[in-house]
Write a structure and sequence with these properties.
about 90 residues; two-stranded antiparallel sheet; 3 helices; about 20% strand; globular
Length: about 90
């Protein structure tokens, strides 16, 4: 997980962000890596691989920036974050 987060942050930091063209900068929300986007763009990301789920989560890019995640990971990935993590994740 830490290696994926580090690669994501490196990727985002390498991208050039122009405020006029890209009001939604790329960022890491602790579960997904979101790329730069322009106003009106809808971006989707798969559920994190450690959840072993096939769902997707979405964010809209607006003039005010990114919207909240929809649907929440708990719904899209069919997982409650108060549950135990899979064994391979809890051993990391």
């Amino acid at each position: 997980m830490k290696r994926f987060q580090q690669r994501t942050l490196e990727h985002v930091s390498r991208q050039i962000w122009c405020k006029e063209a890209k009001p939604c900068p790329g960022w890491w929300d602790h579960l997904n890596c979101w790329p730069h986007a322009v106003v009106g763009e809808v971006v989707s990301q798969p559920c994190p691989s450690f959840l072993h789920a096939t769902g997707r989560v979405f964010r809209n890019c607006t003039e005010s920036g990114w919207t909240d995640l929809y649907p929440p990971h708990e719904i899209a990935c069919d997982y409650g974050f108060n549950e135990s993590l899979p064994l391979e994740v809890s051993l990391l």
